[in-house]
Task: inverse folding
């Protein structure tokens, strides 16, 4: 009876489709079966996937092309892997983005490769996001840990940032060192990483960041300190309540409020008495 009902439901779905939709649905099923059993998609099928990938370059077509690739399923992965190194930034970003939703284990190595080697930070960060969408990140962790030993300094750094996204404490010595890097963007990445690997040892380094003239770094440091437990992190936060930047002060007040530490009540009350910025007061 159950099989009969399922058959009727499937028939109703098929009848609601156009001829082209039905043809594609059956083709997707066949190609996914082929890939699942160790085969390669047909050349014609790969051409179809590549046509969809090319449509991702155009904003009006992008969402529809993205949806159709996801509807195809893992049979689209072989073509996608070949486009992970596409010269077009949008294509590379979309390849890792779609894999974040598709979560095909066959793509993990290529997504990790984008984390450590892509020249565009937007692609690298989307690739890190994608790895975090997999239900099992064991393989990704093994790969970034191995790449953190690379002889290439840029690869090592990108691997350490990737490790932070996967909440791997092994990255902390390198990330702490990165807080004083000569490159501003790398310093920001280091500060940001400490919000994900919440270790009390990071509070001292973030105290130093709060002495920086770069307000975006100070703001990010407050966000990270708010995620770190312990008295030292609390004291650094409380000490930043009088920062000259209202954006920093706003984040300090939010972070102290979320900690639930009764000591913060006095700090916040005293700041409120002299605060003039409307956003901070709210």
Result:
């Amino acid at each position: 009876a159950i099989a009969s009902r399922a058959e009727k439901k499937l028939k109703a779905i098929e009848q609601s489709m156009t001829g082209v939709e039905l043809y594609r649905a059956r083709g997707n099923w066949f190609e996914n079966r082929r890939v699942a059993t160790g085969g390669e998609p047909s050349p014609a099928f790969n051409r179809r996937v590549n046509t969809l990938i090319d449509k991702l370059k155009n904003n009006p077509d992008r969402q529809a092309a993205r949806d159709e690739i996801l509807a195809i399923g893992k049979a689209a992965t072989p073509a996608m892997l070949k486009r992970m190194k596409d010269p077009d930034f949008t294509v590379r970003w979309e390849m890792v983005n779609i894999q974040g939703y598709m979560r095909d284990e066959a793509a993990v190595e290529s997504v990790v490769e984008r984390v450590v080697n892509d020249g565009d930070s937007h692609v690298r960060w989307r690739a890190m996001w994608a790895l975090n969408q997999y239900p099992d990140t064991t393989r990704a962790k093994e790969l970034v840990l191995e790449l953190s030993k690379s002889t290439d300094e840029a690869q090592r750094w990108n691997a350490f940032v990737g490790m932070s996204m996967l909440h791997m404490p092994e990255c902390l010595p390198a990330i702490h060192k990165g807080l004083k890097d000569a490159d501003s963007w790398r310093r920001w990445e280091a500060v940001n990483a400490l919000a994900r690997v919440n270790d009390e040892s990071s509070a001292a380094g973030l105290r130093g960041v709060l002495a920086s003239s770069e307000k975006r770094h100070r703001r990010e440091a407050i966000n990270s300190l708010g995620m770190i437990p312990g008295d030292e992190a609390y004291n650094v936060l409380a000490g930043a309540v009088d920062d000259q930047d209202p954006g920093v002060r706003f984040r300090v007040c939010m972070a102290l409020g979320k900690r639930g530490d009764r000591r913060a009540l006095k700090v916040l009350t005293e700041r409120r008495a002299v605060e003039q910025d409307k956003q901070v007061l709210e």
